[in-house]
Amino acid sequence: MDKQYNFKENEEKLYKEWAKKDVWKPKGEGKPFVMVIPPPNVTGSLHMGHALNTTCQDILARYYRQKGRPVKWVVGTDHAGIATQTKVEKALLKKGIKKNEISKEEFLKHIWLWKEEYGNQIIHQLQRLGASCDWSKIYFTMDNDYQEAVKTAFKHFYDQGLIYQADRVVNWCTRCQTSLSDLEVEYRKENTKLYYFKYDKDFPIVIATTRPETKLGDSAVAVNPKDKRYKKYIGQTISADFVGQKLNLKIIADPMVDMKFGTGALGVTPAHSLADAELAEKYSLKSIQVIDRFGKIVSNFSEGLKVRKFKGLRAIEAREKIIEELEKKGLIEKIEDIKHNISICYRCEREIEPMTSKQWFVSMKPETRNPKSETISKSKIQNKSLRELGMEAVKSGKVQFVPKKWEKVYLNWMENVKDWCISRQLVWGHRMPVFIKKQATNLKFKIKNLKLNDKDIYVGDNPPEGFEQVDDVLDTWFSSALWSFATLGYPKKLDKKYYPTTVLSTARDIIHLWVSRMIFSSLDLTGEIPFEKVYIHPTIYNQEGKRMSKSLGTGLDPIELIDKYGADAVRFGLTLLNTGVQDIKFSEVHILAGRKFANKLWNIARFIEMNEMNRKFLISNFQFSLNFQNPIYNLYFNKVDKLETETERDLEQFRFGQALERIYHFIWHDFADKMIEETKQDESDEKMVFLQTVFSRLLNLVEPFMPFVASKLKSETRIPKF
Ligand SMILES: [Zn+2]
Fold first, then answer.
1. Which of 285, 343, 388, 520 could form a disulfide bond with 352, CB atoms 3.0-4.6 angstroms apart?
2. CA 144 to ligand 1 centroid distance, Å
3. In the CATH hierarchy, which fold is given to the domain comprising 178-357?
4. Dmax over Cα atoms in the chain, in whole Å?
5. pLDDT at 444 over 70
6. Are 706 and 10 in contact (CB under 8 A)?
7. Where is the Aminoacyl-tRNA synthetase class Ia domain (predicted)?
């Protein structure tokens, strides 16, 4: 053995061996232990959260493999619609290629090329960390088989009457040109102005708004029913000439209105505010589109916006003009500086423009399951809504969250879940398998709120003549929701040997986006729960308690840490910090401790080896029995037994940090400091067998946590394998 443990050389050699196709295919008998890795974005690179989550999963995989269970750990990547598209768009721009100057097909070609070239970076990074996934197949959410799964699932939901198209105010990014789910919207505090003004000189109520330009589309003024100031106007419709646009404003009373904000009177803009759209539905208000999908004042006047002088202006330019005009007319009462939470796109950080558009939805409501034909059975799912299915799975204990507190978070979310907007106006993604009759498509542009007839829609693979496919692609989470079973044979033949899976280990911020949708999709499409346990790992913060993020400059690159300290050390450090009790404040000290521990293990092995060589001891010559003459040795095995039992119990309960800490202390402070020291004088053969046997068992305990050094010591020293 070398004097020093060379982690670089050892890890380099081993991870290449472990990355081979068939190394981690499930073997053995008994109840399989199955996990699907949360598929990282194909364009992504490893961050600390991945490193922690992958370590947790690998500890379980290696531990249960050691116990003899067939372990299947499914791996692959997600096509990550908007994230990938934005990344490739930026890369192309650097080469001087603009997305809107090339065809859709060309752009798609660029994305696939990009994926081939850079897409597997994260897979290599997972391998460097030592992840023992089943590499014989690396899934991708845009593979042909996966596309089949997506189409089948879509058709199933459609046939169940759960998919519908509707006009909705959605979060719209005028740069990415797509709708975003509420969960894809982020917030930023900004200084802005709150304008107090009247629509015209005769209008009796002063309203307050941060966005005067949208007031061109107002159809009501909302006040609180308790507000005495406005009581006499409630129920009236008052006309106003707002900078040239004629408005008919209904005065409505709704408890939702905050009496203390502004003047307590709100201009209601159904086309450009989610909250106002809800009011519009409640009080049957007209919706007038003011801003188009590029963030400019609309040029198409058929929708109700008659004033022409602002057409084509960017919203902010129109705002300035309107304020100027209101000031001239003396209609402005005051302008206040306020700090305001604005919503921004999570990809490009541009301000969100709430906008009405036609989108497709999956219904979560109980009354909506309504099969399209009588041959479609409802029996398997007993006519339950997706929401009910999702809630029951957890309430009944069939799916359990660890730590348990996340069940409440999950159930609260499901309790109030809204219909799921599944259409995105992107190029990269699963194109919706929806075909619409051509005449109907044309009509759609002429008549607003036109409800498409079932006969005008075809869902599936072989549309009849005269139908054309819609351009929208599906929300990335629609395909991710199928991950646990689309990777295990669905829709052809679900592999019941491995399904339902055993454990899903993931981050808390995707409980809503992903975990919930995987649960109800699996139940509805396969009749099975997707996994028995959901382990929600802690979040890693830096020393100041800030989120680790590369873009904020508060992140650390796990690969750099692996280069510096070794993968074992990184795994050790992250695991030791993961006690499951609270979130992790990351410190490099723990990783350094991991490197020291790897060296310690090496030194113990060397000590044993040297002892052996000095005495020309050959283990094969020794009559092996675990009955030692020296009672101290016999007693010591009880301690090791206990350590093994405690480790098993800890890992069953996902107490990774506690398990590792106990093993670490035992090896360092009990085995090395006491046992080896105290028996230095004993030169018997049985001591050699004793030390080697104990060390071998201890290495088995270390292996799931620090597989590189443990494997090396197990394979290359003469420690017997029992
Ligand atoms: Zn954007």
1. 343
2. 28
3. Isoleucyl-tRNA Synthetase; domain 2 (3.90.740)
4. 108
5. no
6. no
7. 14-587
Q: How confident is the model at residue 89 (pLDDT cuts 50, 70, 90)?
A: confident
Token pair 């939702």 is found at: 256
Distance 178 CA to ligand 1 centre (A): 8
Distance of CA 174 from the midpoint of ligand 1 (Å): 7
DSSP state, residue 471: -
From ligand 1's centre to the CA of 262, what distance in Å?
Answer: 30
Residue 346 CA to ligand 1 centre (angstroms): 7
Determine the pLDDT at residue 126. Answer: 95
- CA–CA separation, 242 vs 290, rounded Å? 13
| pLDDT number for residue 549 | 66
> Rounded to whole angstroms, how far apart are CA atoms 434 and 358?
14
- Architecture in CATH for domain 593-716: Orthogonal Bundle (1.10)
CA distance 625 to 686: 9
Question: Would you list the domain boundaries of the chain?
Answer: 178-357, 593-716
Model confidence at 447, in pLDDT bands (50, 70, 90)?
very low
pLDDT average, residue stretch 555-575: 93
**Ligand 1: centre distance to CA 119 (Å):** 22
178-357 and 593-716 have identical folds: no
ipTM over 0.95: yes
**Which residues make Cβ contacts (< 8 Å) with residue 128, sequence separation at least 6?**
11, 15, 559, 562, 567
